[in-house]
Amino acid sequence: MSKQEIEFKGLENILPYLSNLLDTDKRDITIKQFKGGYSNLTYLIQTPNKEYVLRRPPLGLKISKAHDMAREYMVLESLQKAAYSKVPPPVHCCSDDKVIGAPFFIMEKVNGLILRNKIPEGMRLDEKFFAELSRNTLDGMLELHQLELKNSGLSELGRPEGFVERQVVGWSERYFKSKTDEISDMEKVSEWLLVNMPKDEAVGFIHNDYKYDNLVLSGPENPEIKAVLDWEMATVGHPLMDLGTSLAYWCEDKDDDLLKMFNLTYPSGNMKRSEVISYYESKSTLSLDNMVFYYAFGLFKVGVIAQQIYKRYTLGYADDPRFAGLIHIVAACGKKALNSITTEKI
C-alpha cells in the first residue's frame, strides 16, 4: 500500500472522487478514521494544502433519521447564514451511494483541543480553565438558542409545535424497539415522562448533543470555543430539551463513574448542575421551573442512544469492544433519571 491508508469499506471510488473535488493528485491524499465516536463515522482527509473531515452514517442497521448526511450538511450551511460562526465550513455533500456505499459530506477541519472523558496525559488544566470553559459552553448554547430562524433557513429544519411530546413519544418508542434487557428503571421513567410533559412551548435552534467532546477549543491555555461539531440531531424545538440533554452529560465528582465517560465536567472548577441551571436562567427569558422533567428526559435519551448502539452491537453490525458495556450505561441512566424524579433534585 502506498501513501493512502484504507480504513473503511468502499474506498475504491473515493480517491479519484476526492482528487477531482479537491484538485489534488489521488496519490497525495491520505484518509484515516477518527476513533472514539459512537454514532456517525468520521474520517480525516489530508492533502498537501489542507485537511478535511468526511462524515458518513454508521455501517449496517440504520437506527435513526439523525444519520441523514444531506440534512446535517444543510444545518452547517444554514448556521453560517444565521451568522453562527462556530461551525466547520461545509465543503461538499454527496448523496450518491455508489461512491462509498452511503451518502457523505465533507467539511474543513478545525484544529484545536477536543476534551474527551479524561485530561490528556501530560496536560495540566486548572480550575480557572474549567470555570471559563463552563461559562463559554453555556454562552455558546445560549447564542445558539437565540439565533434568527426564518431568514437563515433554520426554521425549515424542524417543527417546533408539539416538539416535546414528539420527542418523549419518539424516544420511548425507540427504547422499546431496541430493548435487549429488562431495565425497569428505564420503563418507569418512560411512563413518567409521558404523563408529566410541561405544557409551555418555546422555540429555538438546538444542537441536541451539546457537550465538551463536541467542542473544538483554542487550546489548553484558552478554552475559547472555535467550533461545535456533530450536528446530526440538531433541529428547531424547545431549548430546555437541549439544556436537559446537556445536563444529562454534565457529571459531577460524586456521580457514577459509568456516566463520567462522556464528559469532562467533573474536575474541580466546572460548574455544578445547579449552577448551570442558574447561569442559563440568568441569561434567558425562559422559566426553568420544570428542569427535573427536562433533565430526566435528557438522561432517558442518553440511555436510549446507548441502548440503540448496544442493540447494533448484539446484532453484529458493530464490533467496537467499547459497545459491549453500553448496557450498563443504559441502566445507570435509568437509575439516575428515576432518582431525580423521585427526589425532585438534579
Automatic annotation (TrEMBL):
The keyword Nucleotide-binding does not apply. Residues 30-263 form the Aminoglycoside phosphotransferase domain. GO terms for molecular function: protein kinase activity. Keywords: Kinase, Transferase. CDD domains: ACAD10_11_N-like. Transmembrane segments: none annotated. InterPro entries: ACAD10-like, ACAD10_11_N, Aminoglycoside_PTrfase, Kinase-like_dom_sf, Ser/Thr_kinase_AS. Pfam families: APH (PF01636). SUPFAM superfamilies: Protein kinase-like (PK-like). PANTHER family: HAD FAMILY PHOSPHATASE (PTHR47829:SF1), HYDROLASE, PUTATIVE (AFU_ORTHOLOGUE AFUA_1G12880)-RELATED (PTHR47829). This is Aminoglycoside phosphotransferase (APT) family kinase protein. The lineage of its organism: Bacteria, Pseudomonadati, Bacteroidota, Cytophagia, Cytophagales.
